DNA sequence: AGAAATTTGTCCGTATGTATC
DNA sequence: AGATACATACGGACAAATTTC
């Protein structure tokens, strides 16, 4: 099989599916083993592990060597969503950065969700020219 | 080659080495390409990418497809300005918090200044009912 | 306690897709 | 269009931690 990832990458699709199961609590505590997930999604181990890494980074699961991946109950109703975006700087921010009106800024947003609603929203603004890819 | 990882895993060793270079600024902006790192450390692409993923998660670098990995570190002396305020929630934030239009939010703002202009602006929004950090 | 089976962790090699220069 | 660089995906192999018998 080639490697067509036209839409979402396969590991993202798998992660999305597993995320839904976790939220609906179809999986109570212990997740299926990587081998089982490989068979279910007809994916390689690396791809499955990549999907699990996404959930791990979101704090939805925790993985222990030799045991498996567990749903983190404490974070079951509290997880984090991160995204990076470019926005047009509001006047106050433009002034702070010493940029002209209408300039664009890079913003990293972290949303901590609890029980469906935001608990904290953190936004970090930077210049496009500063560090990192832009 | 077998897979002897008696001490630290190889990708951890590579990450440690790169971290040191970043901190000593031997790498100013653009990191070596993955191919170069493969040759330098005689490691496979996957291992190199695993090392870079560590640094990326630490926020030390940022990677862009087709371009490369850039150093992303706020390393230097800089002024920090902090303030706390209450603001009327913009519609997008109100929705995230599950609050009605016109609701108020508490915002903690941290401005890192460099050479007079803002380097980063961090804004943390919370409900008024939430007390303290976290 | 010991051995075997299970499960995750690490590493390699290859191939192809996608983004950028 | 071509070259370069990162992203995704597969397969195989062995190591290390845990559980099971």
Main sheet: strands, sense, barrel of chain A: 3 strands, antiparallel
- The residue ranges of chain A in which pLDDT falls below 50 over 5 or more consecutive positions are none
Oligomeric category: homodimer
Average pLDDT of chain A, rounded to a whole number, is: 86
Helix content of chain A: 25-40%
Q: Give the largest chain-chain interface (CB within 8 Å).
A: A-B, 22 and 28 residues
Kindly report how far apart the N and C termini of chain A lie.
Answer: 34 Å
Number of DSSP-assigned strands of chain A:
5
β-strand amount of chain A: 25-35%
Compute the gyration radius of chain A: what is it? 19 Å
* Structural class by SSE content of chain A: alpha+beta
Across the major sheet of chain A, the strand order is: 3-4-5
Tally the helices of chain A.
4
Order of helices and strands of chain A: HHHEEEHEE
Q: Which shape of chain A, going by the Cα principal axes?
A: elongated
């Amino acid at each position: 099989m080639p490697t067509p990832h036209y839409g979402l990458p396969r590991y993202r699709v798998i992660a999305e599916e597993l995320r839904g199961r976790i939220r609906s609590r179809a999986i109570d505590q212990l997740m299926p083993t990587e081998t089982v997930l490989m068979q279910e999604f007809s994916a390689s181990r690396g791809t499955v592990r990549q999907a699990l890494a996404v959930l791990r980074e979101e704090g939805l699961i925790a993985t222990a060597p030799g045991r498996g991946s567990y749903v983190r109950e404490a974070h079951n109703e509290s997880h984090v969503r991160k995204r990076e975006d470019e926005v047009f700087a509001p006047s106050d921010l433009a002034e702070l950065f010493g940029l002209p009106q209408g300039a664009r800024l890079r913003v990293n947003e972290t949303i901590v969700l609890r029980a469906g609603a935001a608990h904290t929203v953190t936004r970090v603004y930077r210049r496009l020219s500063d560090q990192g890819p832009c």
